Amino acid sequence: MAPEEDAGTELLLQSFERRFLAARALRSFPWQSLEAKLRDSSDSELLRDILQKTVKHPVCVKHPPSVKYARCFLSELIKKPSEGSVTLSESTAIISHGTTGLVTWDAALYLAEWAIENPAAFTDRCAVLSRSHRVAGRGPAEAGCLPGAPAGS
């Protein structure tokens, strides 16, 4: 990455970090700059870096924002295109009484089957689990990154 690209990426990350930690309105985030950066760059780590600067930031882990704010932020973030991304969406209109047990598991099985057939798609990738409620000892979101590993490991 060229020095000016590095500087631009760092400014973008700082902008996301400051706005998120200050709980600024989501419309104030530089979403268009992020989309342009994702289109023009082969840097697949940008979304992971944004997660580290926002929902996984040490201050945020110790003092998490509201569940609604974190969920809205993550929902907006996962809408952004990323080369080789996989998105699983769910509609509350087709589930019973606001629960997810009637839809998610079939989708998870299809995703797992696809992941087994396409392991390279998950090498050096991050996954975000957005929650509508808190789980004991955890914040409203979890993010995990998968290190590069040989296929079949």
Automatic annotation (TrEMBL):
Which BP terms does GO give this entry? methylation
Could you confirm whether the keyword Methyltransferase appears in this record? yes
Q: Which InterPro entries match?
A: FAM86_N, SAM-dependent_MTases_sf
Record domain FAM86 N-terminal: where: 12-81
Among Pfam families, the record links this protein to: FAM86 (PF14904)
Q: Which UniProt keywords apply?
A: Methyltransferase, S-adenosyl-L-methionine, Transferase
Q: Which domain of life does this protein belong to? A: Eukaryota
Determine if Transferase is one of this entry's keywords: yes
Gene3D superfamilies given in the database record: Vaccinia Virus protein VP39
User: GO terms for molecular function, please?
Assistant: methyltransferase activity
Question: What family classification does the UniProt entry report for this protein?
Answer: Belongs to the class I-like SAM-binding methyltransferase superfamily. EEF2KMT family.
Q: What is this protein called?
A: Eukaryotic elongation factor 2 lysine methyltransferase
Encoding gene per record:
EEF2KMT
